[in-house]
Amino acid sequence: MTFDVGAVRADFPILSREINGKPLTYLDNGASAQKPRVVIDAMTRVYEQEYSNVHRGLHTLSNISTEKYEGVRGIVARFLGAPDEEEIVFTTGTTEAINMVASSWAAPRLEAGDEIVLSIMEHHANIVPWHFLRERQGVVIKWVETDANGDLDPEAVLAACGPRTKLIAVTQLSNVTGTVVDVKAICDGARDKGIPVLVDGSQGAVHMPVNVAEMGCDFYAITGHKLYGPSGSGAVYIRRERMEEMRPFMGGGDMIREVTRDAVTYNDPPMKFEAGTPGIVQTIGMGVALDYLMGLGMENIAAHERGLRDYARAKLDGLNWLQVQGQSAGKAAIFSFTMAGAHAHDLSTVLDKRGIAVRAGSHCAMPLMEHMGVTATARASFGMYNTEAEVDRLVDALEFCHELFG
Q1: What are the Aminotransferase class V domain coordinates in residue numbering (predicted)?
Q2: Could you state, in order of their start, the residue ranges of all structural domains in the chain?
Q3: pLDDT (0 to 100) of residue 58
């Protein structure tokens, strides 16, 4: 199948609009991606014609909603290469997923002095839940830093593990530098040591094919809004053995079999970890988005984005007054940069006047910012619908910024 970026762009209504009188150049995909018409239409159809609560009714609308909602579990399993759809737990996103693992799996098992190994590249969502355990239970966080290019050596991660290391939690792809981590090598080495691995797939699953069975991880979290689906949707793959070790995360409907005055009997996984009325329409929308991605082919998407990365890298490297953070050879099409004389927020504001949407700030990665010696960067993060022409618009706008602030 040939990847036709023009046809893909036509699927996204928002890409046809203007911002400040200029064509929208949306380069904030690392924060949240736009939604294709097929997702928008599917969610509208559910609200207009099919909506009802799931699992609780025997009437027609409830049956339709339940069938569509539960059908997404298989879609997620297929997208992630999970052996069994019952190893998929629905969440509101990666943040909830990691908090679930921290609360349900780690908290009951870790004691004061036990260790969790993190990379310096982690998003706050894969840092703060472990700080909870540090504050409340005396768990020790061990940090592994990247090299000068922004690469993370799997051997360094494994070398940081000691006899009291109980978990490795690592991103597959940095949301700041675009660095791709060899998580399979980490998982292989960790398995030899008997250490479970949690992979934050918020960015990785967007930009490359994923197969958790081949990867060998114990937990793999994704968030729907970065995968061209709706916000408030997500999922986590949990290896069956780990599921059996987990206590319930929240209490309420659907995660129980029976409740009496004196006792409660819990449902089987994955329902055991899904309390209350879920994000029904959001989850259905995520399933449609994942089907859309698989229809295009994740390897086709990855190849298109590699071309964008190479083109953008060559263009940005030609701006000798621009400092690009992280020069990993195999990085994704994510570029964080600074410019002497201009704050990242100023760059973002000027770019916006030209219709170009980029992110500015610490990108929820303050330890990495400190490691790189910066307080904030501007970030251009590309998606499958971006083009080389949009790279040129970014470069032209940055040259204007250099003239303005230089």
Answers
A1: 25-394
A2: 5-30+298-401, 40-295
A3: 86
